[in-house]
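Record pair follows.
FIRST:
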Amino acid sequence: MANPVALALARGIAHIGVMTKPPLRLLLCAPRGFCAGVVRAIETVERALQLYGAPVYVRHEIVHNKYVVESLKAKGAVFVEELDEIPDAGAHVVFSAHGVPKAVPKAAAERGLLGIDATCPLVTKVHREAMIHHKRGRLVLLIGHAGHPEVVGTIGQLPEESFRLIGTVADAERIEPPDPHNLAYATQTTLSVDDTRDIVAALTRRFPDIAGPAKEDICYATTNRQEAVKAVAGRVDAMIVVGSENSSNTQRLRETAERQGCKLVRMALRAADIDWGLYGHVASVGVTAGASAPEILIDEIIAAFRERFEVTLEVVETANETVQFPLPRELRPDAS
């Protein structure tokens, strides 16, 4: 006959094993993660490695995500901040998705380097609009974050005196341009939609004649990801934003969640970055990812939650993205 004490103990252990995981609702934002410009940039580096072999140099991080950068390094990409770090004339160098000043491709050509432009087409759109405004004699008020590579690249398309940088509503309120009737504005593509709306409102109120873009400069992916966060953040106890700290659009997702009233918002690149002690008493968590974060990292974090919780997963979709961008011309299969 089985020992009744041992039998009871075994049943208790089995019961504990079933009940150790507390229930948790995970709300997964959609859209999230890679946008078309990021996909194009990564594929540009991978295609260049296939065609030309390693090393292929990349000036600045191709996109702001450490996992992506390390993955490309493993395939033979070499990341540099300046062209003088490239030792070999005739080497291929990819310019990042954020865009570069005009002086950079010029300097690369002078050194005999073979430049490949992976600038996101939506950033290129901002460059072209700024050049048109400049040709028409307008001072361009560039809404963006000082020092961000995209802003540096945009300002570098024209003489420096052609721009004034506007970072906040306060900047918009105090700027005194030399000719208030001959202005235009452009924006960094990865800004907060709400912040930018307030800045533009201040500029248009102060300068009614100011010219704006035919279609807003903040890219579709930035807008869509922020809208998805707005749909989720008010419904959950916590939000995790997957991505790197130096990613502008990822930081804006964190800010968006906080503005929607979510009390616990954290960024994480990998599951190992999560402080699990923060989630012991939550019933629901929202998950989103910046436009440079690959889906594999999101899957990793969901799997880590499943290890600790009995997860019910719900996808909250606010837009369906179908945008695609072709590779740079020299990398396309039909290139001569």
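SECOND:
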Amino acid sequence: MASERIIIKSRYEIEMMRRAGKVACDILAKMRRAAVVGVTTGELDELCGAELKKANARGLSKNYPTYRPGEGFPGYSCISVNEVVVHGIPGPVKLMDGDIATLDLALTLDGFCCDTATTVAIGTIPPKWQKLLDVTLETLNLALQHMRPGKRWSEIARLMQHHVERHGFNVVREFVGHGIGRDMHEGPKVPNFVTAEQLRADFTLRRGMTLAIEPMVVMGSRDVDQCPDGWTIYTKDHQPAAHFEHTVAITETGVDILTDGRSPMPVPEAGS
């Protein structure tokens, strides 16, 4: 986390983030359509890279410095298949009928960041896997429906955790959402669950906050491990995982989703 300081954004900054969000949404849609049986995760990432170049945007995963000592992350995006929860490395793995794949894209455009993710079914997946996807997306939408100024984040996180667990799934604890703006990772940390530790870092939603909300839900145990590459995170019991994410801004009455593909409004003067 670059900083725990919560940075309130101006209208100008929010509209610039929406411009970035529109690009990310459009690229993710193209990747989703291309995610079919037989395509490799590396080919999907190449598509992502080409689209980023067209938009004059930069993928924030590419060359991320903590990937390996002396190396940067090789992908423009993270693509996580089946039991991989997050940070899947694009490469030669072919998508097979019955797989699920999370497409996770963070980018920066003209100095402003956004972060978004979706989990897609490849071919025909088992009904319980489809339920996992449905519940994870419902959990994200539930959070967005209840967010508004004056609410404590723990109230939202409790709703998210309850929704997941009452359907028989679990929330991953090691990874949470985050503030976002000119940097990909800003304060605060935005968990999808409630613990005593998280309550000590609780915060109140305020107009102008910009947050990446990203429930990560698993079918079996919530315990995860890391591959020897030092990056890829997978479920210890090898049960599937799903992940949906939007970047949002808190408004006077609720949230404004900045990565839903809506065209940006006219950008006001900087500082307004």
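COMMENT: DSSP finds five helices and 15 strands in the chain.
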